[in-house]
Amino acid sequence: MGVEDANVFETLTKPLRMDADPPFEETYKTLFQNSIGKATGGKVNDIIEECELPVIDLSGLNRSKSDREKCKREIAEASAQWGFFQAVNHGIPREILERMHHEQVKLFQHPFDKKASKNLLNFSVDSYRWGTPSATCLRQFSWSEAFHIPLTDISKSVDSNSLSSTIKEYEATVSVLAQSIAAILAENLGVKSNFFAENCLPSTCYLRMNRYPPCPISSEVFGLMPHTDSDFLTILYQDQVGGLQLVKDGRWITVKPNPDALIVNIGDLFEAWSNGVYKSVQHRVMTNRQVQRFSVAYFFCPSYDTVIQSCREPSLYRKFNFREYRQQVQEDVRARGYKIGLPRFLLRSQLG
Questions:
Q1: Which range is the signal sequence, renumbered to this chain (predicted)?
Q2: CATH of 3-313 given 3.40.50.2000, 3.40.1410.10, 3.40.630.10, 2.60.120.330
């Protein structure tokens, strides 16, 4: 084990201070008491096949014409067949990724009361989130905490602290990557426009720093419940603990971590915009009884007023704007405890 690997291992296995974890068991005591051992469909951590997602070497985009076309084809095929792929040689310096992880760990080391006080960072008041207030059963509960940060908060920040400066550097590189991938996927559909450059700006995108604490009831709850992403693209930087799972051919599979890769997945908006060509698939995160897990997700989003319209006819989905989509998702979560998403916008929806 090298020095760098040893440092990463120590970070993941070393517990945070005792008062850093959210009070899951105390706050959700009634939910746990009523649900433990009563979940239907087996334990959440039933043995599931592990596989490696398609790995795409993005350096091919900077080589010969044949290499570029091959790389673009691989991106489009993975997005249509898997809805996920791993990107290596993605252009984001390792040093920025390591600093992002370091700053994230420091942030979550603060006592829970301080994280929940809304005074820890000069971000939106609801940026810190943990647990699942809407859960009515364990299958709707997420054993995790996160800082969900609109990048407008970063761009407006006058703070010169290391976290803000690191996020700005990370965002500057990952947004270029997201724009490049979106343009390639649009080109594959025969659409050459400035749609993404005009509508998915740094000011409309989000960054979510996730932490999944060790969980004493890991066989009963998810780290992040099954869901699809409500954006165009998500670019994920994760540690090597593992736990990410996705649906492929009707079965859950476990994603084998790749230390050299970023994970890219299609969101609901791209599935609707592509008229179902690219797939926004369900995914989830499993808990771990012994070690914590960290990840950083970049959500490539448009402005709330951006109209999402299928680029091919006949259209599967009716036109809607991003604000309407977000509001419908939030309404369903409040009413049902879970997201319904795109089926709500099918032109021949059978939902009530």
A1: none
A2: 2.60.120.330
